[in-house]
Specification:
Length: 54
């Protein structure tokens, strides 16, 4: 059976989030239904089988 290597991911969390500035200072940390936006992205990566390497 062929060994499957994990797929690396690069998560971009940049930008000012100007449209959200009245709600939060940090766009990746704004909570949606109690979960930070960046947490939702990380969960999606994990669910897709993307793992941290190195």
């Amino acid at each position: 059976m062929r060994e499957v290597n994990p797929i690396p991911a690069l998560l971009l969390a940049a930008g000012e989030g100007r449209r959200l500035k009245e709600y939060t200072k940090s766009k990746p940390l704004i909570q949606i239904a109690g979960i930070p936006l960046i947490g939702r992205v990380l969960h999606g990566l994990k669910k897709a089988g993307i793992k941290k390497s190195g």
